[in-house]
Specification:
Layout (H helix, E strand, L loop, with lengths): L7 E4 L2 E4 L2 H17 L3 H17 L2 E4 L2 H8 L8 E5 L4 H15 L5 E5 H6 L4 H15 L3 E11 L2 H6 L1 H17 L4 E5 L11 H22 L7 E5 L10 H14 L9 E4 L22 H15 L4 E3 L12 H4 L4 E4 L1 H9 L5 H14 L10 H8 L8 H5 L3 H21 L6 H7 L11 H4 L3
Parallel strand pairs: 3-6, 4-5, 4-11, 5-6, 6-7, 7-8, 8-9, 9-10, 10-11
Antiparallel strand pairs: 1-2
Helix pairs in contact: 1-2, 1-6, 2-6, 4-6, 4-17, 8-9, 9-10, 10-11
Length: 453
């Protein structure tokens, strides 16, 4: 077991890295120890130490708000920011992203995890933050790192049963994420849109009032020195395509509902033809997706020119063909969310032992058989369920030998490089650094961390 005191100490009331090289050499073992510790106190203490050690190494969790404000003002354009969800092998995958970002001088990229993913991948915000920042330490990355709560979604069924309890649960998650230094939060109350109402504004009213209420809560708990980047959503992903009228009704209603003088949204998520994870055919292959790029372009233009936002956000796009990604910068799409395609590379890579994969699939068939839908083939069920194979079997995934993981990471690195190129975020590091003025803000050292030092 590594003695943390060999390279980290408390000096003048804050954590100091006394040997950066030793920290970088030891971070693999440190994050592994933190994630799999059976002592919750030790786990939390190590996570907190890693976050502060990252800042000491020139790595700062930050908000992309100011950069998006500049995009809304027309100062920057011609690229789309990738927001990447990592469901499994988080430390290893994040390392590949940082390596490729350094190589291509990319500053405009986001690490995110959705409310649902936090549950089934068994990654609480603090673990996710520490895993990503550990990867940045290992790869020698410096500068702002954007951590995002994706789809912090209102569950319509739970809300109908007990509105106060559901909103309190969301506020609790938001507070937990902000304390873990997630300074980018996407609120998703699109599940509350009521299409039975006569007018579009009435349909969107539950959406924009809840979004405004949660945005107000974020503003009240965010640090004084970092304005959180907040996103809203007008169309539930997988539903019908969004319209300009819906965009206007939501944003106008949101502004009317927000407290006077309070900073609003930086972006707006819309629906233009995608489904999370893609549509799986009976043979297990993915159906081709057709995105309405004209609608996406129009919605982005209206969001920027009339409301000062960075533009529209596209979800559920990681399984699109390579050539499609170049169209997002052309349409002025502000941000694109990517998840399942990376999961597919991990599961389908030839270096992953068939025996290990079969072990995961048998676990899914046993534990999640109640989620099998009527008429689903085995291939469709496994495809839809395998995202849930990372959390319960996390230690088995993390413990895979390097000769198995390395080829998978190499393919992922190539994929991230292709996406950075297609989304045109190469050479954005300087412009992000110019817009996002980062200064280290040291957190109070909790007692659980002091005991380890």
């Amino acid at each position: 077991m590594i003695d943390v005191k060999k390279f980290i100490n408390v000096i003048d009331g804050r954590i100091r890295v006394t040997d950066r090289n030793f920290l970088r050499e030891s971070i693999d073992n440190l994050i592994y120890r933190a994630v799999f510790s059976q002592d919750d106190s030790e786990k939390t203490g190590l996570y907190k130490i890693i976050l502060e050690a990252a800042k000491e190494s020139g790595i700062y969790p930050s908000s992309i708000e100011k950069f998006y404000e500049d995009i809304g003002k027309g100062r920057y354009s011609g690229f789309t920011v990738p927001a990447i969800n990592i469901r499994g092998l988080t430390y290893d995958v994040a390392r590949t992203i940082f390596r490729k970002a350094k190589e291509k001088s990319v500053g405009a990229f986001i690490f995110e995890i959705a409310r649902s993913e936090i549950g089934y991948t068994m990654q609480r915000p603090l673990e996710y933050s520490a895993s990503v920042l550990s990867a940045a330490i290992k790869e020698g990355y410096e500068g702002p790192v954007f951590l995002q709560g994706d789809h912090f979604q209102v569950n319509s069924k739970r809300y109908a049963e007990n509105p106060e309890k559901e909103i309190d649960a969301l506020k609790s998650l938001i507070k937990e994420a902000v304390e873990a230094e997630f300074y980018n939060i996407d609120i998703d109350a699109s599940t509350m849109v009521d299409l039975s109402k006569d007018t579009i504004k009435e349909q969107q009213e539950p959406n924009y009032t809840l979004t405004a209420s949660l945005a107000s809560y974020i503003r009240k708990i965010e640090p004084d020195y970092i304005p959180v980047s907040i996103g809203g959503e007008i169309g539930e992903i997988g539903g019908r395509n969004s319209t300009v009228d819906e965009l206007g009704a939501f944003l106008d209603g949101f502004r009317e509902s927000l407290e006077d003088g309070m900073k609003g949204l930086s972006k707006i998520s819309v629906q233009t033809g995608t489904t999370h994870g893609g549509v799986v055919l009976p043979d297990g292959k993915l159906a081709k997706v057709k995105i309405d790029f004209e609608t996406l372009k129009t919605l982005s233009e209206v969001a920027r020119k009339e409301y000062g936002l960075s533009g529209a956000v596209q979800h559920g796009a990681s399984t699109l063909p390579e050539e499609a990604f170049s169209k997002f910068p052309e349409t002025g799409t502000a941000e694109i969310h990517l998840a399942t395609g990376f999961q597919n590379i991990i599961y389908d890579h030839p270096s992953l032992p068939s025996g290990f994969k079969e072990e995961v699939y048998q676990f899914l068939s046993k534990e999640f058989h109640k989620e099998r839908k009527e008429g689903q083939t085995e291939e469709q069920f496994i495809y839809s369920a395998r995202k849930k194979g990372f959390g319960p079997l996390k230690k088995s995934w993390w413990s895979l030998p390097e000769d198995i993981k390395n080829p998978i990471m190499n393919e992922l690195e190539d994929r991230f490089g292709l996406l950075f190129d297609r989304l045109n975020v190469r050479n954005t590091r300087d412009m992000v650094s110019e817009a996002v003025k980062v200064s280290p803000t040291w957190k109070e050292i909790p007692e659980v961390a002091r005991r380890l030092l």
